[in-house]
Task: structure prediction
Amino acid sequence: MTLVVVSQFDATPEQVWDVWEDARKLERWWGPPTFPATFDRHEFVVDGECRYYMTGPNGEQPHGWWRIRTIDKPHRIEFDNGLAGDDGEPVPGVDPMPSSVSFEAVDGGTRMTSMTNFTDVEQMDKMISMGMQEGTEQAVGQIDDLLSSN
Result:
């Protein structure tokens, strides 16, 4: 069970990579427009950890975390993606979702393929019901504007 989002950008793989590597740029697109993200830790190295929260329109702040497993600049990132408590730390007993992002030069631009693997149907159903698919599509939709402003 995998959620795959494929996007294409009029930018080089290095430029698209940069919107992941630079925490301030990542904040400008990681959350959907109504739930912007704030990264208070962004260790973009193998075994590095990231902590973030998104702020919703009613002030709610769901937290998340990553643990980076692979960095192959500017081709691939692999990380565990999980839910965090209010302290920003992983919620005990909640399995993370193995995730990956690949960047491929195509037709003068870049194809970015984001994959989130779920541990089971229950986890997938929970994340989809929380709006993960729509939120991811909306978030990725903000990258074009960010790339054009560079």
